[in-house]
Amino acid sequence: MSTAARLDLEPEILAARIADVHADDQDWLDRFQSALGRNRSGAELQRVLAVWRLSKADAARLFGVTRQAVQKWSLDGVPPERLTSIGDLGAATDLLLRYLRPDRIPAVVRRPFDDAGGRTLLELAGDDPALALAHVRAMFDVSRAHA
After folding, report:
1. pLDDT tens figures, 50-86
2. Exposed (0-12), middle (13-18) or buried (19+): which is 86, by Cβ within 10 Å?
3. What residues contact residue 85 under an 8 Å CB cut-off, 6+ apart?
């Protein structure tokens, strides 16, 4: 059986097989879980950059790192200390995609908001991704609409 065929299983079945094979090696299972999480975080970062139409250089300015660091995060996964930030931006991206046409999102994240002191979602995301997420949630909070 080819490697591709062995990996083309339902996630629950594949997870059970991996756990069975490495049942006596908790360290291996922990490293596998960590590697899988890093891989997914890099994909999440790439998705945010694509939806918000940010270049690697834009993202580097946003996070206060080099363009090379952003490239490494995309390939090897986001460092643990940045996972919450990427998660918040991913959640904000999910909301934006749910309520806006994708071609509108880049303009929305670059538009200054009165509620944010005249700052853009990009600026908020760079300083405090959780605050950026809160502003996106507030944008679509229909309970705030006036009757």
Report:
1. 999 999 999 999 999 999 999 999 888 888 889 899 9
2. buried
3. 63, 129
Strand partners, 119: 113
In the numeric block, which tokens belong to residue 139? 């944008």
The owner of tokens 């749910």 is 98
Query: CA angle at residue 68 from 67 to 71, to 5 degrees?
Result: 90
Give me the helices (H) in the chain, please.
3-7, 11-21, 26-52, 56-63, 67-76, 83-99, 105-110, 121-127, 129-139
123 phi-psi bin (left φ>0, alpha ψ -120 to 50, beta other): alpha
In this structure, how many other beta carbons lie within 10 angstroms of the beta carbon of residue 36? 11
pLDDT digits (tens, 9 = 90+) for 18-35: 888 898 989 888 888 877
Contact yes or no for 132/121 (Cβ under 8 A):
yes
C-alpha closest to that of 16 among 3, 5, 29, 27: 29
**C-alpha separations of 102 from 48, 135, 142 in Å:** 12, 18, 20
